[in-house]
Amino acid sequence: MGVTCYIAVGSNLGDRRKNILSAIKKIKALKDTKVLKVSKLIETNPVGGPCLEGKFLNGALKIETKISPRTLLNKFKKIEQELGRTKSAINRSRTIDLDILLYSDKIINTKKLVIPHKRMFEREFVLKPLTEVI
After folding, report:
1. Which one of 53, 55, 79, 83 has the lowest number of neighbouring Cβ atoms within 10 Å?
2. Could you give all domains of the chain from N- to C-terminal order, each with its CATH number?
3. Catalytic site includes residue 32
4. Residue 94 is a catalytic residue
5. Strand 42-44 and strand 56-65: pairing?
């Protein structure tokens, strides 16, 4: 069908589980995209932000898609907006966060998109769920 991609998903505002499940449902509804595997969700402390912010729920998805990396990023940004994410400082609270970790064997390094995700190997909350879906 298409290429295999790995996606990180996280939330620390509102009903975190519902936010993540809603995002997964919207990803499943994308044309030419199939969700192949979903990790368990793990609860983690925020990294890099103020310590008073709520804990995150984090997980990972394995998807197959025919959508290009840049278009997929745009679709994920739209899903984030639909689920109430607003523009904020980096590493701040959010209703939903969708990050493309890996897109087949592509290496992309632009201002708006870096694949493989530049900080994924530094973050256990990304790597632990990712190992479940690889």
Report:
1. 55
2. 3-133 (3.30.70.560)
3. no
4. yes
5. antiparallel
> How is residue 40 written in tokens?
């368990």
Instruction: Return the structure tokens found at 110.
Output: 């632009």
Instruction: From the candidates 15, 32, 70, 85, give the one annotated as an active-site residue.
Output: 85
Is 105 among the residues known to form the active site? no
pLDDT tens digits, one per residue of 74-121: 999 999 999 988 766 455 678 999 999 999 999 999 999 999 998 898
Options 16, 94, 105, 119, the catalytic residue: 94
CA dist list (Å): 10 to 1, 91, 106, 109, 116:
27, 11, 23, 23, 18
Q: Is residue 97 annotated as part of the catalytic site, yes or no?
A: yes
Burial class for 19, CB neighbours closer than 10 Å (0-12, 13-18, 19+): buried
